[in-house]
Amino acid sequence: MIAAPQPEPSLTADGLVGTDLACLRGGRLVFAGLSFRLDPGEALVLTGPNGSGKSSLLRLVAGLVPAFAGTLNWTGAAGSIAYLGHQDAVKPALTVREALRIWAALSGTAAGEGTVGAAIAAVGLEGLDDLPCRYLSAGQRRRLALARLELGHAALWLLDEPTLGLDTASVARLEGRIARHRAAGGLVMLATHVPLALDGARFLALQDYAAEELPL
Which domain does 54 fall in, by range? Predict the structure, then answer.
């Protein structure tokens, strides 16, 4: 029997505002003059060709790289941002359950057995709890990475190609999970090459902010 999804706790989040942002990568100005606003309940899909700065913008918002120029205003609580890069960051020697426990600890979340078990069930990895991650398929590793979103109550989700390796059923599960997060007041910014059913999502074309040279 598949358990019905539990109601998402209401999230208290402020809007995310970027103003005249510029990002420098490898001595090249990837984008400049980029401004956007993302309010609770909204989804912003980043589009553009490879190298246009989709991943760079997600990393910038996550605080992993500094902005070269401009301002980013996010006044949510500490630990209220969840970032999922295009690399799964799954340690082969850990079991599925161990990996989730460690991710929870690193994020400052007190995750008991019930929380970890619910995260495993949410991504359809039941029965694989004690399997070393080295034996997981690419799709299963991606689902395990997505299970991190179930740990804690981050208001802002930053997702870089979250559908990599996922089958049709897993993509539909992800769409439903994002919809519940938004319904609870959560925010989502993502880059994806696979179109997702995201009701009312807005789009930000990174190629419109391309910058070829550093300003003198």
Answer: 41-63+82-204
